[in-house]
Amino acid sequence: MSTTITTWHRRCVGDVPRLLLAVTARTVLWSVLLLALWSTLPVFLGWHVTTVVSDSMAPAIRTGDVVAAMPTGPDAVTPGRVLLVEDPDHDDRLRLHRLHRVEQDGSLRLRGDANPAADRTAVAPDAVLGIGVLRFPFVGLPRVWVGEQAWADLIAVGLAAAALLLLARLDRPILDGEPCRRCGAPRWDLRTTPLRPGTPGHAPRSAAVPLVAGALVVLVGVTTAFSGASFSGTTTTAAALGSTEFGCFHHDPAGAVLAWDFAEKNGARVADVSGHGADGFFANVGASRIDGDCAANPSVHLTADGSEGYAVTDTAVAAPNVFTISAWFRTEVAGGRVFGFGSDQNLSSVYRDRHLFVDADGRLRFGTEESGSQFKFMVVAPTRVDDGQWHHAVATFTPGSMVLYLDGECQGSRTDARSLRQYSGFWRVGRQSLSGWGGSGAWAFTGDVDTVRVHDQVLDPATVAAEYAAGR
Q: 225: Cβ–Cβ under 8 A, 6 or more apart, which residues?
């Protein structure tokens, strides 16, 4: 009787993590390489490519970003555009700021987004080198670090790159079919091309990763060689990996934790320019952009003809207990929620308060809801706002103080609202259920909304008046 002996190879369980680490490392290396390559292409089109060395244009443009400016004629130089110009205060520098206004003598007054005032020196029209079109985040950081002699940052990045290169080669034994060194289990050879009997030779090993590393060093060097634009003024300092276009000029969020200016040129996304990541999106076809050019100050138009459009944040947050909310709006229709907080992203939230809405009599109301009893506190402005004119609404709350402002003036307050309902939810512009709120009228807002802000503190009357005076 014959005996059959079966040999069982132990399964090698360490291959999957090695493969994942190697693929992730190569993905990061290739992403940085392609971004650096993309940032050099405008040079061959005759555009100006420059590296940002300060944060005076934050949050739209940060230190270390590379910006491509397209040469253009004077007709395209309009307020709100990002312009690359010869710095009027320094002969050896360039300046990249937005055009704030055109003076009566034709000179150009620029301003950094993050600067509190316009530049002190106007720019001659013939000093404009181009209009900022694309931003490539982080690519110019090596040039900035060299200029600042930040050798520790350069060394840290070099070590990180070396670590990525080592991680990218972790799966080479697996791809080459080498047995597992730890457990001895055999692997399939995934790299070598099968050879016919008698055919000499062996497939060469892949040199992709070293080539990526070498090309990355060259491309970053080339990119930063074309840099040199500095900014007038600095501020505080996160950008995504990928090039972006510039939106129109926006007002300084001034410490806001949510700031929507609706200055994106297209698409359903709503960008938070406060730098806190409170982005959102337009829901339903009843929300449409009023774009025009930058000088027209883009906004959003909402309708209540059955489509009931609105804009809502992506991510749920805890309902605040101390806050200021504000928005510019105009309408000719009595009724509709302008801005506020709710528990859901769909048409109607289970819980909704901390909001501004126009009632059935065309008056502005600010409402909050008490915890426990769910009593609804409201402050009502005495004048109508459904006159088709732009109005600035501001509401503040802290336990024991609830205040409503309209067009820079206090409309009323109360001191009995102390503890608000607690829940997680979303900030929303436009349509929301107002069931249970006295005199609410229609739920969907019909009109235009712009310059929406949320602060995690109470703004004082002087600040509210100054924001109204600054306009939308």
A: none
E strand segments, 156-275: 229-230, 244-245, 258-260, 269-270
CB 331 within 8 A of CB 445: yes
Please check whether residue 51 is in contact with residue 90, taking contact to mean a CB–CB distance below 8 angstroms.
no
Q: How far is CA 154 from the centre of its chain?
A: 27
First to last CA, the chain: 95
Verify cis geometry, omega within 30 degrees of 0, for the bond prior to 125: no
Write out the two tokens for 446: 């019909």
> By the 8 A CB rule, do 425 and 351 touch?
yes
Between the CA of residue 123 and those of 83, 100, 116, 456, what are the distances in Å? 10, 11, 18, 38
Residue 204 has pLDDT above 50, yes or no: no
Angle at 314 between CA 310 and CA 320, to 5 degrees: 90
User: Which of the pair, 228 or 161, is modelled with greater confidence?
Assistant: 161
In the prediction, which pLDDT does 233 show? 32
CB atoms within 10 A of CB 340: 25
- Predicted confidence (pLDDT) per residue in 250-278, tens digit: 566 778 999 998 877 667 888 888 878 89
Please tell me which of 24-33, 135-144, 375-384 the model is most confident about, judged by mean pLDDT.
Answer: 375-384
3-state secondary structure 126-150: HHEEEEEEEEECCCCHHHHHHHHCC
Mean of pLDDT values over 376-394 = 96
Dump pLDDT digits (tens) for 284-316: 777 877 765 565 677 888 887 767 889 999 999
Q: How far apart are CA 403 and CA 415, in angstroms?
A: 9
DSSP string, 208-235: HHHHHHHHHHHHHHHHHHT--EE-SS--
**Within the chain, how many helices (H) and strands (E) appear?**
6, 25
Q: Can you tell me the distance from the alpha carbon of 415 to that of 421, in angstroms, rounded to the nearest whole number?
A: 17
- Residues whose CB is less than 8 angstroms from the CB of residue 313 and which lie 6 or more positions away in sequence, other chains included: 258, 278, 279, 280, 426, 427, 428
Q: What is the pLDDT of residues 50-64, one digit of tens each?
A: 888 888 887 778 888
Residue 296: DSSP 8-state? G
Q: Which residues contact 194 (CB under 8 A, 6 or more apart)?
A: none
Q: In which residue are the tokens 């939106």 written?
A: 247
